[in-house]
Amino acid sequence: MRYSGFGNISEGKFSFVKKARYFFIFSIIITALGILTLGIFGLNYGVDFKAGSSVDISLKKDLSSKKADIEQFLKDNDFGSPGLTVGASRVTLRFDDVLSDQKERALKQGFTEKFDKNASMEVNTVDVEIAKELQTNALKAVLVASIGIVIYVSIRFEWRFAVAAIVALLHDAFIVISLFSIFRLEVNLPFIVAVLTIIGYSINDTIVIFDRIRENLRFAKLKTHEDIEKVVNESIWQTLTRSVNTVMTVIVAALCLLIFGSVSIKLFSLAILFGLISGAYSSIFIASPLWLLLKSKQKPKTNVKSSAAS
Amino acid sequence: MNRRLLAFILIIAVSIGVVAGFSKWVVNDVKLGLDLKGGFEILYEAQPIEAGGKVTKESLIETAKSLESRANATGVTEPEVTTEGTNRIRVKIAGVTDENKVRDVLKKPAELTFRSARGCAADKGYCKIELHGSDFKQNGADVRQTNLNEYEITIKMKSASKFAEITREIAKLSASGTNQLAIYLDEKMLSAPNVSGEIPSTDASITGSFTREEAYDLKNTINLGALPLKLTEKYSQSVGATLGKLSLQETVDAGIIGTVLILIFMMVFYRLPGVIASFSIAVYIWLLLLGFNLIHATLTLPGIAAFILGIGIAVDANIIMAERIREELRSGKSIMSSQKAGSKSSFRTIIDAHVTTAIAALVLFFIGVGSVKGFAVILLLSIIISILTNVFFSRLLLSLIVRSGLVKKKSYLGVKESEVRAL
After folding, report:
1. What is the Cα–Cα distance from A28 to A43, expressed in whole angstroms?
2. Would you say A271 and A46 are in contact if contact means Cβ atoms under 8 Å apart?
3. Is B154 on the interface with A (CB under 8 A)?
């Protein structure tokens, strides 16, 4: 028997399933907080989702002392007063209205002439209609992907695994969205891509643990609820080194992008980082205990059967 | 030296040779998106200029084609013009020097004119504009096959008298051989049919030695010209060349640092399987780049994200296998049977994990637009290549080296003797 040493391994070790209640409570609190902040403050939408124009200017000169001059320049040239942040090597402008291409041109030209000859710019302009479409499109994609995963996992495993996996996946996506709402970080198209990346990763992580539970279930003799509980806990422990090592390696990659990567993907990397941590957490502490919870609801049936047999 | 060891060394040597030899070529061939190279992307919405007109699928495709040829005419390389939905056209142009000029040229509605050489100096060609697109009936152009099996384009005019007068005047020029009514789209001449006499009707026909395709192209162009579409910018992104290059440099550097750290960790923690995993991951990255080039994918920042997720999945596949082998070793099995059992039992897990991610990627591909679609393509590609390299290739290499009998200590596989349970 391959897993004959079953009972012994977990003795004296932490029980993920026994303490699951606390993790559920923790996640529910975080989620509730997220709903609250989302309800009150909403998300800090960038132009991708709100319509308008954003201008990022990468500088060769340090203009941090010239904020007033830039404001004056904008006012003098009829650009209104957009949101303006001036950093050492970067100036960011946010216009609530769509910047016409003539205006865009005038801005680029004026700014380069007046402040920095070597400035390089990124301009994003999005119309309201398209912004709305992008949002619904992203939402639709997440929902359809979830359904697809539910179907596959239901076929390969059983529906309870599918439900638990999807709950964990939505949990991760929501945590990242909540954190962005709480810290008022800007939400744009790369952010959506980051959330999608997290979903892909989260599901990957959860499936590995589920796979082990499924395998161990085949070898185990299950009589009581405690038996299943033991199998789940064992499975989490058996895959723990892998879970930790995998998430560590990916976190290292995301951290490198955050620290050394370009400014335009800083927020993206941060979203990924939040998501990876949440993904590993939910796979271990939420998905498997949740499966157990669903499974134990099924228990009365088998109990009746076994009691009838004896 | 035994045969398995020889095969192992041979595979390693050939892989290193191919990867090292062709990596410069592969890397240079990767097409960079405008966020990494500078350039711009515009999503246009097309509307008919005249009230009551309709945007048809045909007119949209024709407009996209003419946008592409206009962009080409300004000398930019590889403009990407695609239609989306029923009334949108997406234009992506990377590496532009004079963005303003290109944008201006693109925005003008395509203009169809019929021109003659009436009153023009000899070297001026067809300088007089006789008819505009709006002089033709909407969708009035058609293609007909004549008795001689030639293709003929018929056009319907709005005014018979105007056409009669023009053709009468042009026919008079036959003496100088300039009796043509040339058809222009913007400043490009499409055809210059002869006018032999006055045509006192609203129906005109153009004959010539057209191929079937040429005839239909011309028909479509004329119909489009009669119903020009107005383009409004709905979304635009423009990235300065310097900024794009900076983003690329920084992101690539960060990616390299991250990858190197991961590989070092794999080698230290998992020993032999870690070394083999690092090797497979290097091959995986190389193949992924090659795959990009083969499907002509454009690498963008979201694409790089998919790439990094792909490396995560690739590392995971190797970790799952190495962990399984360690488990088997700890349970007291021999190295050879641990390797066999470990790679076998990890296989299904890895496939399940890959397939679920692939499902997500497929959905994104079919539903997403723009950069989300690009992300999905790269993710799908990386899943397929990951199965090839990190499952089959890693397994093959590890089984060859283990069976060669060279691996004698369990510590080579990251397991201490003290951890092994007695059977």
Report:
1. 20
2. no
3. no
Q: What percent of chain B has pLDDT over 70?
A: 96
CB A20 within 8 A of CB A292: yes
pLDDT digit string, tens, across residues B337-384? 999 999 998 998 999 889 988 988 898 888 877 777 888 888 899 999
Beta bridge partners of B128: B116
Q: Using a pLDDT cut of 90, give the percent of chain A over it.
A: 30
CB-based contact, A140 to chain B, within 8 Å: yes
The single residue listed with the structure tokens 């479509």 is B220
Give the alpha-carbon dihedral of B32, B36, B37, B39, to 10 degrees: 100
Helices (H), B74-230: 99-107, 160-171, 212-226
- The reported pLDDT for the residue numbered B227 is 55
**A204 at B interface, C-beta within 8 A:** yes
Strand order in the sheet with B229-239: A83-86, A90-95, A52-58, A120-126, B229-239, B39-48, B88-94, B80-84
The rounded distance, in Å, linking the Cα atoms of A210 and B113 is 68
- The chain B residue lying nearest A58, using CA atoms, is B243
Asked whether the beta carbons of B55 and B46 are under 8 A apart, the reply is yes
CA–CA gap between residue A247 and residue B317 (Å, rounded): 12
**pLDDT-derived band at A309, boundaries 50, 70, 90:** very low
Return the structure tokens found at A252: 């290292």
Amino acid letter for position B326 = R
Q: Please state at what angle helix A288-309 crosses helix A159-182, rounded to 10 degrees.
A: 150
SS3 state at A126: strand
| pLDDT score, position A75 | 85
Rounded to two decimals, the ipTM of the complex is: 0.81
d(CA A174, CA A35): 9
Could you give the CA distance from residue A271 to residue A192 in angstroms, rounded to a whole number?
9
Cβ-based neighbours of A143, under 8 Å, separated by 6 or more: none
With an 8 Å Cβ cutoff, is A239 touching chain B?
A: yes
Say what the pLDDT of residue A3 is. 43
Within 10 A of A217 (CB to CB), how many other CB atoms are there? 15
| 3-class SS shares of chain A: helix, strand, coil, % to 5 | 70, 10, 20
- What was the pLDDT predicted at A121? 85
Residues 3-42 of A with CB under 8 A from B: 5
Number of helices followed by number of strands (H, E) in chain B: 11, 13
Which positions of chain B have pLDDT values less than 70? 1, 49-53, 109-110, 122, 224-228, 422-423
Alpha carbon distances (Å) from B116 to A84, B121, B127, B192, B221: 55, 12, 6, 9, 19
- The CA-CA-CA angle for residues A125, A129, A135, to 5°, reads 90
Q: Do B349 and A242 touch (CB under 8 A)?
A: no
CB-facing half-sphere around the CA of A292: CA atoms within 13 A: 28
The answer for residues whose C-beta is within 8 angstroms of residue B286's C-beta and 6 or more apart is B19, B22, B23, B26
